[in-house]
Amino acid sequence: MTELNKYMVLLGGRPAKHKLGDIGRKEDDFIRVFREDEEYFIGNFTEGFGFIDVKYKKVDCRNLTVEEVDKLNGKWFGVNGDPHYQISIDYDGNLVERKFDRLDQWG
């Protein structure tokens, strides 16, 4: 199993396997991938209920477009309406390390 830390897109209407069943979306949606094996990317949706260790078939995923990277970069994600971290990714979707990536670190 290979470790990753990148953003991708799950194509709409494709399955997302979780231990509770298929939690796929009707429309294309952003996912964050942490691991991969021969058949699956494993991670979570960037927004939603917070299900972890979701399996996405590799053939059902695609890399981000330039426009999607530009849209995501600098965006804040939160938990329960509280900003938690700001996204910074390269054009391959890989997370770029930032000195400050949480709102409480901006001081």
Give the arrangement of secondary structure elements.
Elements: E1 2-10, E2 17-18, E3 21-22, E4 29-36, E5 40-45, E6 54-57, E7 61-62, H1 66-72, E8 76-79, E9 82-86
Antiparallel strand pairs: 1-4, 1-7, 2-3, 4-5, 5-6, 8-9
Q: Could you describe the 3D structure shown?
A:
This protein is mainly beta and 107 residues long. The chain folds into two domains: 61 residues; 40 residues, no CATH class. It has a five-stranded antiparallel beta sheet with strand order 6-5-4-1-7, with no helix packed on it. It contains one helix and nine strands, in the order E-E-E-E-E-E-E-H-E-E.
Question: Biggest sheet, open or closed, and with what strands and sense?
Answer: 5 strands, antiparallel
Question: What strand line-up does the widest sheet have?
Answer: 6-5-4-1-7
**Count of DSSP H/I helices:** 1
N- to C-terminal separation?
Answer: 38 Å
Broad shape: globular
- Cα-atom radius of gyration: 14 Å
Summed up:
Helix content is 7%, strand content 39%. It has 107 residues and is mostly beta strands.
Describe this protein with a few key phrases.
2 domains; 9 strands; 7% helix; 1 helix; mainly beta; two-stranded antiparallel sheet; 107 residues
